[in-house]
Amino acid sequence: MSEEIIFVDFKEKTEKELKKRRSSIRPINERVKKLRGDSVNTEVRISSERAKLITEFYKSKIPEGKSIPVQRALAFKYLLEHCILPVEDGQLIVGIRGTGINEIPTYPEINVHSKKDLETLNSRENIPYKVDEGTKNLYEKEIIPFWKGKAMRDIIFENLPQEWIEAYEAGVWTEFMEQRAPGHTTGGEKLFKKGILDIKKRIRESMEKLEPEYHEKMEELKAMEIIADAILIYAKRYAEKLEKMAEEEKNQRRREELKQMAEICRWVPAHAPRTFWEALQHYYFVHVGVTYETNPWDSFNPGRIDQHLYPFYKRDLEEGRLTEEKAKELLQCFWLKFNNQPAVPKVGVTAEESFTYNDFSKLNIGGLKEDGSDGVNEVSYLLLDVLSRTRTLQPNTAILISNKNPDRFLIEALKVVAPGFGEPPFFNFDGVIVKMLRQGKTLEDARTSGVSGCVESGAFGKEAYILTGYFNLPKILEITLNNGVDVRTGKKIGLETGDPRKFTSFEDIWNAFIKQVKHFIELKMKGNDIIEALYAKYLPVPFLSMWIEDCVENAKDYNCGGARYNTQYIQVVGLGTLADSLAAIKYHIFDKKTFTISELLDALKNNWKEYEVLREILRNPDKTPKFGNDNDYVDEIAKRIVDTVVEIIESYPPSPIRNASRRAYFLPTTAHVYFGKVTGATPDGREAGFPVSEGVSPVQGMDRKGIAAVFRSVAKCDWDKTGASLLNQRLTPDLFDNEETIRKFAHLIRTFFRMGGHHVQFNVVSAKLLKEAQRKPQDFQDLMVRVAGYSDYFVNLPKGLQDEIIARTEHENV
Q: Is 456 part of the annotated catalytic residue set?
């Protein structure tokens, strides 16, 4: 075949793939088309308004003698009284965190950006946040001088022990809360069944039950009451603005819409919503409140949204207030509100671990009802339709699959995956219930739970499940093989577990490694508890607390253990790299004696230079067992890693401040790329600097026996012991060209979940297309791919992450 024919074939295939993707974007009408265009194409900028107002309040408006919770509530009230009220042209839902589309506020009380930070954000090639001169001047003259030394980030690093900081700087772990606040939570049915006035009544009832000596509890309830009034003021201001806009509007149809929107804002969030439109607006006011109060990780989301919205949808249809088309329009407008609020700006390690504009609001679809029956309904399919037509970075979705859900639901969701935008991901909901029951949740609370963030399970509206940072397992193996020394910095940050050149068995390696793991988890737990105590003391969140069950009744803040359930998580990274590395050591050094441990250590030290033959043996799945190929030799090591790490983490008593149980997740976001940068060569043949494996996926390119073999390998680990695990798979686009293959995939996913898998998501994109996008990024600005627990525009990703995605195995059959 001539080179010309090969080039033509390649061009035709990539053009077909692109056409399929782009033709799937089908907004329901011109209104939504324009809103989507504005959302997708508007440059991301930093808005200085929130930082200015919060600083203004704390400098001169704060009353003397007020407790910290009340101060926080009054600051929030001041913000909502004075912030501008954007209304996107043609939108049907109002409220936004910031001053406009993609104009993102900052939170100097949590992390005050330096002048250097602002320059970095403004000028970096990937994921920039444009900063105007006015914002730079404001920061230099007012924000930085006032908040330096007072921000949570400064307080945290002042209080952490030096050995914790050294391990952090070495890349043994990251810290979620050094630039962003605790959050990672989701609303429950209270979001849609209660209004602010209902909650204020409950606050008053709790106040009346308190004895006089419970001063701290009373202050927390006072703060909740103040902050409840604040969101009512915000909604009232919007109602007045919409009424004024209606008076000035010349278009009759838009004038009537604005009047109706004003009426809705007069009702919600003061009262529980009565209609479908009111329910969407009610939630979004709450969403803005939560994300304006702090910058919580994984934003906030409405949880089991199809079940929450279905009663409103059904009643409105029956009573003639709504049509299916109008519901789709409202949902698409609602959808775009999330996309208009990118993640808050992050720098340094925090940016490395989550390098994206995506803020991880996750809409759960499917699953079961509280009584254990099938939870799929008409709104479930409406949401799939919205997702398939809108194709934006946010919100994220989660397809919750139970044995009781119909095949049609799973098949329709797979059809949404087919064009290749990386959404939606699939979750084993029956497994989520098992996880929740194991952690002590009631059966009813387990059935109404779901997933948030990337893949993390939790009891919706009832749990504070706070993530503490990523944990680098391959780095700890590197430290073990160097007797406690970090070779990158030369510092001894681990234990002296012995010279590995003198080890005589695999168990010697294993035991030394586990001693290091215990050492670093112990140190991480101490840091977690310090940071948890600091947030409980200095950064209560009375607005969020109002919406999480039992915080009002307990008169305790979300950050201080007020929720019904409290959990503290460590996110474990690099399972595939570690399993393959340990398998390589066991197989070649101790079982087959292919080479000595001294030879291996010398090769690692030299990053394989002059040891290329040795590296090729270690990288070859035909010569060295690799996780992801249904090979018990290495899969049993992976299972042993999971069981042991979970056992170590769960052996710790509950945290002292929140009484939170200790749990493990296995997921990376983009930390696997950062961890690769700070980790030297590993025994699986990986070169220094290359990303470690992500989630529980096999090492990039090492799964050679098909997706079914990957599923069998992953399912050998007991994921019910964890809170979550993330599995990425890349598929060739041709696989989704016929209905029969899609049905086979549906059955394969069900089988994986029955075997115990927690999650799987698919990149339906060819390596050829990705390489072409690297070569001509200007032609592929809209190319979206699945990264980890989220999707992102491929050309926005740093090259190291692009290369890692390309290196993932591309499966061509079921």
A: yes
